[in-house]
Design goal:
GO terms for molecular function: transmembrane transporter activity. By secondary structure, the chain is an all-alpha fold. The protein is built from seven helices and no strands. It has helices at residues 2-24, 33-57, 63-86, 92-120, 123-143, 157-176, 200-208. Helix 1 packs antiparallel against helix 6, helix 3 (63-86) packs antiparallel against helix 4 and helix 3 runs antiparallel to helix 6. The longest helix is centred in the middle third of the chain and has 29 residues, at 92-120. The chain is globular and about 55 Å long. The chain starts with a helix and ends in a 7-residue tail after the last helix.
């Protein structure tokens, strides 16, 4: 469970940095702050409703796949912006759309992490785990206004930092977090004799508890 909480904490920290950094630096994008804010809000609403519906109606589409898609989208769009910022290709409108859409997917990442953590951790520590990860995310919000200060060193450096950090998170999430959709929530902590063992046994136990229904 330690690597679960550390993975979630790292992911929420990075997501908070990206999400709030975009919000605090909205004036640097093409267009007005008001139009960009409206686009971001509408995009987030459409995205959350669409992916929530897919998760509910498509049984084979689990939390893990949705979250991996969101991380991959953020990495891809940020890499596109990095390329356009460091070369003469692209224009300000494309940079704005790519950046804001990546920020919009961050809201989906917040939601999915919350769902997975509530399904993954035993009842006795579920609230503590959620509180810890939320606290780490607040530190990401504190750091986020300084992300675009890195442009003073190189115009593409903030986006390079995002690409590297989120790529690391994608790998950590894939390796450490099991699928939790349709899994029975655990009400008890593992036996003390099982502490410190590799989580493969825990992952197998989680999969064996699936009952074919959404939690």
């Amino acid at each position: 469970m330690t690597k679960w909480i550390l993975t979630f904490s790292y992911g929420l920290f990075c997501t908070a940095v990206i999400s709030y950094a975009m919000a605090f630096n909205m004036e640097q994008f093409a267009g007005t702050i008001y139009i960009n804010s409206a686009f971001l809000g509408l995009f987030r609403m459409f995205l959350n409703l669409s992916l929530g519906g897919l998760d509910y109606f498509v049984k084979g589409l689990g939390r893990k796949k949705l979250h991996q898609f969101a991380i991959s989208y953020v990495v891809t769009m940020t890499a596109v912006v990095l390329f356009m910022k460091s070369t003469s290709y692209g224009n300000s409108t494309l940079i704005t759309l790519a950046t804001l859409s990546a920020a919009g997917f961050c809201s989906q990442m917040f939601v999915v992490i919350g769902v997975i953590s509530s399904e993954l951790f035993p009842t006795s520590i579920r609230n503590i785990a959620a509180s810890f990860t939320s606290t780490v995310a607040r530190f990401g919000g504190i750091v986020s206004p300084n992300l675009f200060v890195l442009e003073a060193y190189w115009i593409g450096l903030p986006y390079l930092v995002i690409v590297v950090c989120m790529s690391i998170y994608l790998v950590l999430f894939q390796l450490n977090i099991p699928e939790t959709k349709s899994a029975v929530q655990s009400d008890a902590m593992p036996e003390k004799s099982e502490w410190g063992r590799k989580s493969k046994k825990g992952d197998k136990l989680l999969k064996s508890k699936t009952n074919g229904q959404n939690v």
